[in-house]
Design brief:
Largest sheet: 5 strands, antiparallel
Number of helices: 12
Order of helices and strands: HHHEEHEEEHEEEEHHEHHEEHEEHHEE
Strand content: 15-25%
Number of strands: 16
Radius of gyration: 51 Å
Structural class: alpha+beta
Length: about 525
């Protein structure tokens, strides 16, 4: 019954773990799908921001890079077209011939005169060689967003954005190079598309970052929380050293993500552990059941032989009595005594099997009453006297006088004592001696059955009380036995609120002790 409860509980636990894993899988997929949708939506927002900013820059470039005016008129209106006085976008404009030389009147700048001259010289020597102008097709636009060595009036490295195009006017080929005003783009263009944000109310935070992750525009102090949804969308047509970063501002996101990770780890780990444990227990149960089936087959064979032996003796001596083949009344009485004792032995074997069957079904089989345990032990010894004599075993019985009455089932306890004596007679026959002692030890009554046989291996001293189990040394000697005698002894002892233990060492015999509590 207990084993059935454990198996059912295990099945329920495995099913619960499987359901938990299925739920986790469903919730994880749903969560990931939702997270992916949020990420895709955020990426689209970033792409729209990037497109809008680059479109603004490209439209400004178009006025210069795609001007329909002939070269002479274009040069005459260069400052006007560059709209340098607005101070918004264009910092400088260069017009170069096909030899990449500066055309007269082909340079305008929003810088002061001296600084403008210094910048022109720096551009021609440091920046121009780095621009891929020779690779351009006619009317093709290009750009270069890069970092150069410091200008003459600045020691630090300089980040610049240059847009350029190859043009043809009549028979003349020329190049237009625009220096974008990065400071004004950051100061005036970005705020149009990235408005001021309130971290407590905004769902998203926008930043423009460079290739090293430093913030170019946006909340300088803001660092995306670990685990928060964060996407980066790079510029492609203009500021390709920079990217737009969009993130969730909620500082609790990391805590939520961490809690979810811990929860998921516990759920998945626990479920997998339960399922693996269930599989291991199942494998163990299958092996145990297979072993039990093998032992049951051996049990049936052994019990059949055990029952057949006394039955054959009863049949033989009964037939001799029935046919009058006796030498006199004394021999007839002897045959009758043999028949009686073998019938007792047969009855005990049958009782063993029946009691064991009841135990297996979980039914109560004991009737307790105040009993003189000494008388019960002496009766058990008397019942196995013939068996001991046949095996040429001597038995020494020491019963302490005036033992208190004990609540027990006399028949069951008699069976337990007989099983211990029979066990010693069968498996310790080489010792030719059994010592039985019944005494009081504190608040217990202890029955000891000692033999001088081969002893029991320490590794098997607990297993011998299991149903159908028979020690390896016994199996090698081909000694017949059912394998349920000691299992019954333990069950009977525990049913009387006591227990049975064994003390043994190989080659030094064995001592089995049943102890029962003394009623208060």
């Amino acid at each position: 019954m207990r084993r059935l409860i454990v198996v059912n509980a295990l099945i329920f636990a495995v099913l619960a773990a499987a359901v938990a894993l299925a739920y986790y899988g469903y919730s994880f997929v749903s969560s990931e799908a939702s997270r992916e949708r949020e990420e895709n939506a955020t990426i689209r927002i970033g792409e729209e921001k990037v497109f809008s900013i680059e479109d603004t820059i490209l439209k400004g470039d178009k006025l210069l890079l795609e001007s329909p005016l002939p070269l002479e008129q274009f040069l005459g209106k260069l400052r006007e077209l560059a709209n340098l006085t607005s101070g918004v976008r264009v910092q400088s404009v260069f017009v170069l011939d096909d030899q990449l030389k500066l055309i007269p009147d082909g340079y305008v700048s929003g810088r002061p005169d001296k600084e403008g001259v210094e910048f022109r010289e720096w551009f021609m020597s440091s920046v121009l060689p780095d621009l891929p102008l020779a690779q351009l097709r006619v009317d093709q636009r290009g750009h270069k967003h890069s970092e150069w060595d410091g200008k003459p009036y600045r020691d630090a490295a300089v980040v610049g954005l240059f847009s350029f195009a190859k043009r043809v006017s009549g028979d003349k080929t020329y190049y237009i190079v625009i220096e974008e005003h990065l400071t004004n783009i950051v100061a005036f263009v970005f705020p149009v598309y990235f408005p001021r944000l309130d971290l407590e109310r905004s769902k998203l935070v926008y930043q423009v970052i460079d290739s090293s992750g430093a913030v170019v525009y946006g909340l300088q102090f803001f660092v995306p929380p670990e685990g928060a949804l964060t996407v980066e969308v790079p510029f492609t047509e203009t500021l390709d050293m920079w990217s737009v970063r969009i993130s969730e501002p909620n500082a609790d996101v990391a805590k939520v993500i961490q809690r979810e990770r811990v929860r998921d780890s516990l759920l998945v780990g626990g479920s997998v552990t339960v399922m693996l444990a269930g599989l291991l227990v199942l494998v163990f149960a299958i092996r145990r059941e297979r072993r039990a089936n093998e032992l049951k087959s051996e049990f049936i064979s052994n019990v059949s032989h055990e029952l057949k032996t006394p039955l054959s003796i009863i049949t033989m001596f009964g037939e001799m009595l029935a046919n009058g083949r006796t030498k006199g009344p004394e021999q007839a009485s002897e045959y009758a005594d043999i028949i009686w004792r073998e019938s007792v032995r047969l009855g005990r074997l049958i009782d063993n099997v029946l009691d064991f069957a009841k135990i297996e079904r979980g039914k109560g089989i004991y009737e307790f009453a105040d009993t003189d345990i000494g008388e019960v032990v002496e009766r058990a010894v008397d019942l196995v006297g013939r068996r001991l004599a046949t095996a040429e075993m001597s038995v020494e019985v020491h019963v302490e006088p005036e033992l208190p009455l004990v609540k027990l089932d006399a028949n069951a306890f008699t069976l337990a004592v007989m099983n211990l004596i029979d066990n010693a007679t069968k498996y310790a026959a080489d010792g030719k001696r059994i010592e039985l002692k019944l005494e009081r030890q504190g608040e217990r009554i202890v029955l000891s059955v000692r033999d001088w046989g081969p002893g029991i291996d320490p590794e098997e001293q607990e297993q011998i009380f299991e149903r159908f189990y028979r020690a390896r040394a016994v199996r090698l000697k081909q000694i017949r036995g059912s394998g349920i005698g000691l299992a019954l002894v333990r069950h009977i002892a525990r049913a009387h609120h006591g227990d049975v233990i064994v003390e043994s060492a190989p080659g030094k015999g064995s001592t089995f002790r049943i102890w029962l509590p003394i009623p208060e």
